């Protein structure tokens, strides 16, 4: 008598409801994906775990605008150099 083994069903990967993956491709540097985050209202392009770029859905402005604000703050403060202070600025 031959017994047949039950085939195990593969579990389907389900993405969380707050994220929509528009596209995903594998490249030399890893997986490139375009993802919408419904909670934050943004669409981002990622390379593995790094964010390459993104926009807000409401006004299509870049999500990296805060970096411009941080740069202005740095430039408005005068740099005071003392004899003991050394800093590597990039």
How would you portray this structure in words?
- The chain has 90 residues and is an alpha+beta fold.
- It has a domain at 19-76.
- It contains one helix and four strands.
- The chain is elongated and about 80 Å long.
- The termini are far apart.
Please sum up the structure shown.
It contains one helix and four strands, in the order ββββα. The chain is of the alpha+beta class and 90 residues long.
- Spatially, the strands of the biggest sheet line up as 1-2-3-4
Radius of gyration: 23 Å
Mind summarizing the main beta sheet? 4 strands, antiparallel
Form type: elongated
Question: What structural class do the secondary elements suggest?
Answer: alpha+beta
- Poorly predicted ranges (pLDDT <50, ≥5 residues)? none
The amount of beta strand, in percent, is: 25-35%
Oligomer: single chain
Number of strands: 4
Mean pLDDT: 78
Helix share, percent? 10-25%
The number of distinct helices, counting runs of at least 4 residues, comes to 1
- SSE pattern, N- to C-terminal: EEEEH
Distance between the termini: 75 Å
Walk me through the topology:
Layout: E1 19-27, E2 30-37, E3 42-47, E4 50-56, H1 65-76
Antiparallel strand pairs: 1-2, 2-3, 3-4
Structural features:
90 residues; alpha+beta; four-stranded antiparallel β-sheet; 1 helix; 13% helix
């Amino acid at each position: 008598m031959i017994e047949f083994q039950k085939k195990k069903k593969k579990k389907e990967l389900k993405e969380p409801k707050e994220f929509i993956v528009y596209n995903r491709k594998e490249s030399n540097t890893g997986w490139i994906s375009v993802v919408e985050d419904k909670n934050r209202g943004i669409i981002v392009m990622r390379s593995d775990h790094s964010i390459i770029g993104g926009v807000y859905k409401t006004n299509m402005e870049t999500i990296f605008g805060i970096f411009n604000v941080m740069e202005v703050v740095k430039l408005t403060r005068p740099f005071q150099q003392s004899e003991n202070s050394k800093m590597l600025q990039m």
